[in-house]
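Throughout our pipeline, every protein is held as a single compact record rather than as scattered files. Such a record has a labelled line for the sequence and another for the backbone structure tokens. The remainder of this section carries one protein's record, kept here as part of the documentation:
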Amino acid sequence: MSDTWEARIYLRCESHKGRTVLTENEHEGPLVVQKVFYPEETAHVYLLHPPGGIAGCDRLETRLEAAAGSKVLLTTPGATKYYRTAGDLVSRVRQDFTAGDGAELEILPQPNIYFLGTHTKVSTVIHAAPTGKFIFWDTAVVGSPVGKTGFDGSFFLNSISVCRTEEDGSESLILREVSRADGMRDLSARAGLRGRQCIGTLIASAGNDETAGAAREILEGFPDAEAGVTAVSGLLAVRLLSSGNETVTGALRALWTGLRPLILGKEPVPPRVWAT
């Protein structure tokens, strides 16, 4: 019997008569969506991973397409946990998200926790049409800040790419972010995490002086987080470092709350699962 979990899910959302519906939901293995919620005009989709953790040489693939005019918010019920692996085994997670013309796509998962002993590679690619809008965030907790564990013999590599899709179907890479922690050296190095075990990243369309200024103002309320805000190639990129997961999570939610009206023109409606 294999201890390896392999899971794939493909989701497609389309706009029908002003309502976003899940038109395709194909999955293999333990990655599922049970129900779509409508607390607002945006469809809220909860992605579930019943095993609750990733280890060994597990392979997970997620694809979500927000077709033209659709409005989708994807989140998870809880943190994704990456556990100890044996030998040279590597867990791999691949995520592809597409925001079609006029679509609004929000990818707001709860934190990824990389425990001592994990060997993990995560790759995320966002494909955005010229008029597609999106907000994406990612939180990485390295080791256990609560238990003050180190990261010896452990590593994770997290890459996030944003590609612009042209009318002829071609794509151009406009941003690539890479986070890495390879043992205690990267965790403690001045050019690494400087002993801070929590990394936050937010990338959104509509990167301009207004959104960058709003982000900087919001982050003034989080003095315990080291933060950088950049508007580049029409995108807004925010990077955070902190010793506490609560600080990074709070900062990202505050950014989403303040930036959603500017980027999507709508007030924030937090998913109910965040309150559980």
User: Anything to note?
Assistant: Residues 245-263 form the longest helix (19 residues). The chain has a mean pLDDT of 91. The helical segments are 183-188, 209-219, 245-263. Residues 23-275 form one domain.
